[in-house]
Design brief:
By secondary structure, this protein is of the alpha+beta class. Helix content is 41%, strand content 19%.
Length: 150
């Protein structure tokens, strides 16, 4: 099973768990969390913390293609990187990585690439989230929705 299939399966399982938890939460807590605020909170958390960026066999950033875009894979810690490696069937190999502050990744590194690229944070876990190359996530000049078509 490839990365795309495994990621899709893990995300579907997480969505099912979230749906079940949302139903339970609705019974216990009638004031549900605003999903947009939750996304903003996750983005703020990502921007403020040091994340791990695994390197590929050539020493470049490890990326994956999903939904027609390239995604830089970033991880909140060695445990989430290990979960990703295990999902890929590569848990026994050594994974070299860099550490970088999330804001620097989104504000400096993504715009420096010669192609549109988003960031997938903790891709193999139930708390994984993606930050697409859109305004609000990356600088306007690197955002796909900033392109003008005539």
């Amino acid at each position: 099973m490839g990365f795309d299939e495994e990621w899709g399966r893990l995300r579907a399982e997480a969505a099912e768990r979230s749906a079940g938890m949302a139903t339970q939460a609705a019974v216990v807590m009638p004031d549900a969390v605003d999903p947009q605020q939750a996304a903003r909170d996750r983005l703020a958390e990502f921007r403020s913390r040091v994340v791990l960026l695994p390197l590929d066999e050539r020493g470049g950033l490890w990326t994956a293609t999903f939904g027609g875009l390239d995604w830089i894979c970033a991880f909140s810690g060695e445990d989430t990187l290990a979960r990703f490696a295990e999902a890929r069937g590569e848990a026994r190999q050594e994974w070299t990585y860099h550490r970088i502050v999330g804001a620097r990744l989104l504000d400096d590194l993504v715009p420096a690439l010669e192609f549109p690229c988003g960031v997938a944070w903790d891709a193999a876990g139930p708390e994984g989230i993606v930050f697409p190359p859109l305004r609000g996530f990356v600088p306007d000049g690197a955002a796909l929705d900033d392109e003008v078509t005539v």
